[in-house]
Structures are given as structure tokens and as C-alpha cells.
Amino acid sequence: MLDRNTIEVVFERGVFRPVQPVDLPDGTKGRVMVPAGAVRRAEGLPPLSTVLANFRALQSADDSAGSSGAQRGTAHSGDR
Predict the structure, then answer these.
(1) Element containing residue 37 per DSSP (H, E)
(2) How many angstroms separate the CA atoms of 8 and 38, rounded?
(3) Predicted local distance difference test score (pLDDT) of residue 12
(4) Rounded distance, CA 48 to CA 37, Å?
């Protein structure tokens, strides 16, 4: 099990920066959790819910194509 510590960070100029000094080796990886609603959507992009719905619809269409999709993929790779 991982030992978890909370490090308060601030996001400035595209980088998460610790508020207080931390004693970690270079290259240490971690995760940053942000409060719900804090992430702004980039202008012109659809909401994530729309992107996920479209992705699921594509998966469903691919699943219903069955083996015919796999056959198409094999035919294309053999053309090379």
C-alpha cells in the first residue's frame, strides 16, 4: 500500500507548484486532485460528457459491426 501525503499546490503558468518546500527526489511522480468545477473547458471544445457519449456510440457501432470490422482491418493491413 502506498503511503499518501497531501501537498498543497498552486497552478501557475501551466505548472503545479508546491506552496511549501517539499523533500522529494527529482522525478518523483504523484497525482493532483482538483475541486469539482475548478477545471475550465477550453473554448470551442465540447463538454467531456459529449465526447464520452460520442466515444461510446462509436464503440457500440464497432461492436455491432462484429467480425466484419476485423476482416476489414486485416484486408487493409495486407494491402501494405
Answers:
(1) none
(2) 15
(3) 87
(4) 13
Residue 16 C-alpha cell reads as 503545479
Q: What is the tens place of the pLDDT at every residue in 31-52?
A: 888 887 777 766 777 777 888 8
Going from the C-alpha of 67 to that of each of 6, 42, 61, 63, 79, the distances in angstroms are: 48, 38, 12, 9, 19
Which DSSP helix (H) or strand (E) runs through 49?
helix 48-65
Rounded Cα distance between 65 and 68, Å, is: 6
Q: Is the pTM of this model over 0.70?
A: no
More reliable by pLDDT, 46 or 23: 23
Cβ neighbours, 10 Å, residue 32:
8
CB 18 within 8 A of CB 9: yes
